[in-house]
Amino acid sequence: MRAFHVAKARAKNCEVLDDLTMDELRVAYRFAQKRGCVYCGEKIGDDFSVDHVIPMSKGAHNSFWNIVVCHEKCNYRKHNKPASKFASKEKMDEIIFDMIIRSPYHEEAITNFLSTGEFISSEDGKALRDIEDRGKVTKDG
Ligand SMILES: [Zn+2]
């Protein structure tokens, strides 16, 4: 899967935690095949790409909870904007629902990340450190 390796390379470039597995991407891809592109709703084919709801350039992870599958052209149009500044209200509700289910962070943290476009506020930074301290995630993925 080309999109998988592209996401891995970008995560390395952005120096963010990267724990996305191929199996997780397959799950996200199956969702997208049923629902359509997470941004435009049209059918997804082989030309999909992995997008990060909170951009990796803002420090967010290449992790199952932060990815959506969309068209390459939609990802290109979205560019570095957070998903909340690009997706429709309806699509964004679906995205947030998926994130909350998959994420180690609580709902308030997710909505805070999305409204600020920044991954780590001081409070959420503490939550992240707590999780790291418990050894659930490591900086090396
Ligand atoms: Zn699309």
From TrEMBL:
<protein>
    <submittedName>
        <fullName>HNH endonuclease</fullName>
    </submittedName>
</protein>
<dbReference type="InterPro" id="IPR003615">
    <property type="entry name" value="HNH_nuc"/>
</dbReference>
<keyword id="KW-0540">Nuclease</keyword>
<feature type="domain" description="HNH nuclease">
    <location>
        <begin position="24"/>
        <end position="76"/>
    </location>
</feature>
<keyword id="KW-0255">Endonuclease</keyword>
<keyword id="KW-0378">Hydrolase</keyword>
<dbReference type="GO" id="GO:0004519">
    <property type="term" value="F:endonuclease activity"/>
</dbReference>
<dbReference type="InterPro" id="IPR052892">
    <property type="entry name" value="NA-targeting_endonuclease"/>
</dbReference>
<dbReference type="Pfam" id="PF13395">
    <property type="entry name" value="HNH_4"/>
</dbReference>
